[in-house]
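Please complete every field before forwarding. Incomplete forms are returned to the sender.

SECTION A: IDENTIFIERS
Entry label: holo-602
Bound molecule: 2-acetamido-2-deoxy-beta-D-glucopyranose
Molecule representation: SMILES string

SECTION B: INPUTS
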Amino acid sequence: CLLSFLLFSVSSHPTSCCSAAELMSVLFFHAMRYKADDPRNQCNDRFVLSKGHAAPVLYAAWAEAGFVKESELVNLRKIDSDLEGHPTPKLAFVDVATGSLGQGLGAACGMAYTGKYFDKSSYRVYCMLGDGECSEGSVWEAMAFGSHYQLDNLVAILDVNRLGQSEPAPLKHDMEIYRKRCEAFGWNTYVVDGHDVEELCKAFWQAQQVKGKPTCIVAKTFKGRGLKGIEDLENWHGKPIPKDRVDEILKDLQSQIQVPNKTLCPDLPNEDTAPADLSPISLPSPPEYKKGDKMATRQAYGVALKKLGQASQRVVALDGDTKNSTFSETFKKAFPDRYIECFIAEQNMVGVAIGCASRDRTVAFASAFAAFFSRAYDQIRMGAISQTNVNLVGSHCGVSIGEDGPSQMALEDLAMFRAIPTCTVFYPSDAVSTERAVELSSNTKGICFIRTSRPATAVIYSPDEKFEVGVAKVVRQSDDDQVTVIGAGVTLHEALAAADTLAAKGKNIRVIDPFTIKPLDAATILASARATRGQIITVEDHYKEGGLGEAVLSAVGSEPGIVVTRLAVAGVPRSGKPQELLDIFGISAKYIAEACGPAVAK
Ligand SMILES: Cc1ncc(C[n+]2csc(CCOP(=O)(O)OP(=O)(O)O)c2C)c(N)n1
Ligand SMILES: *[C@@H]1O[C@H](CO)[C@@H](O)[C@H](O)[C@H]1NC(C)=O
Ligand SMILES: *[C@@H]1O[C@H](CO)[C@@H](O)[C@H](O)[C@H]1NC(C)=O
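SECTION C: PREDICTED COMPLEX
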């Protein structure tokens, strides 16, 4: 086993693999229970390699287990191999992509929470971290979460090899500080010699007996263990072994390896987890709103999620202590056992949600103020690489939140989510379309983002209106529209108000609700623009950069004769009444009407 690890890890990050060799051997061929020929089986124990740069040791373990062909290992990091530089779910034995450090444990917490409380199954979750990685705050958000929820099916392994990339990690080999920190965070903690196989076997066995607490195995190791002239020395992170030293080092390693006379095979898991139910989820009844009713889209989100929860047991909700603002509380009240309070730790919340959604165990909706998803952007970006289907719901977008001021206003969230390759961006403008956005996102692959607003706005659609991803609604039109106005959320309602004012003066405008900003319904927008002398006005409660206006511009950019005027928030806003702020930033009905040009008397 060791042989293939070590032979193979001569490229990539060999020293990071060597410190973890015994840990991985004991984990894969003693502690963990899984079907080696079916790595993504729902009953298997999960393993997350948070220190993803040690990918070769993971690939070697799966080669030893028989799932990866040994001959494939030499294709590590090549363009046509799935054995990439860091693990991704292109490989059946990887649930979440890692490599941006500090993210594995949050996802592992989501898997363990799901195993213990939703699946109520016996599979366990193991997560290996580097010591350098432990400087990431997100690691400690996850540590706090794991003990708060008594995840006794979760084991974190800290590979304390003393060294980081460019210098030693801050605590070096001070194992007592690690012990105190882990214990202070409420974890059952064992400090062990990470190169002592028997000690490791014992620690993993003990961890399985502990109830009510997750276990942290803090393993003292040496970076580059077993590599003569390299072990425990600085300046060897992420470096291949020099060609002229490979032969000597391999010979030395081979002489230490005791070839076992039986093939290693892991124990099988308990068959106590049902296969994932992949059937589509639909609302149990149509939206129960009447045109003209007033309701904020954030509130409609709560109603929608509760209805979806009635339709499917798989729907779960997460929030970061904003549940009575985002209205995820409505779901929690109906289904307390399917709600996870993540407290004020948005990075961890996104990681946990991704963990919950892995292997399709749940359909997860995580909500927060849209502004605060920005601090989880790296988790979201990695979520795309992880092929996650998680749904993120951001409330309190834009200046229309009013008095709370700029720190609470999401004004860059559309840009952020549009840039995510797998993301569908919903921006519903009334309660009916919000309900459909929630339903659609539960069945849409990739990340979904739903942007909801704080102010109450009128219901404009009837309950039987059909919505589709990438299909816009023309909400106001006549035979002589002079311009196409595209708004979403509060600005759609401002656009409708502008249309009324202008109509009274004899000028008609066309108004479009895009429904999804990504994908954007370019065909409807183009057809409308052509019908309105090529004139488009976009109006958004978002900064100009990367928002609705830019999305429209890129959709019509190659079309001749189309002019796009963009109304958007410019500069840092301030506290004030929502309507005052819409006026100051030029995105209210008054400014939309002005942008449409003077009314032409008939
Ligand atoms: C968020 C993040 N920051 C920086 C890096 C670059 N990087 C990759 S490995 C590494 C050092 C990791 O040290 P440690 O966690 O101790 O792992 P080891 O390789 O020593 O086992 C760094 C800085 C990264 N991958 N992710
Ligand atoms: C190999 O097998 C023989 C007998 O079949 C046994 O006596 C010996 O202990 C085994 N060696 C190892 C390393 O397991
Ligand atoms: C949320 O609930 C708490 C506790 O009931 C309350 O004090 C707070 O004002 C509520 N916040 C909002 C925005 O409704």
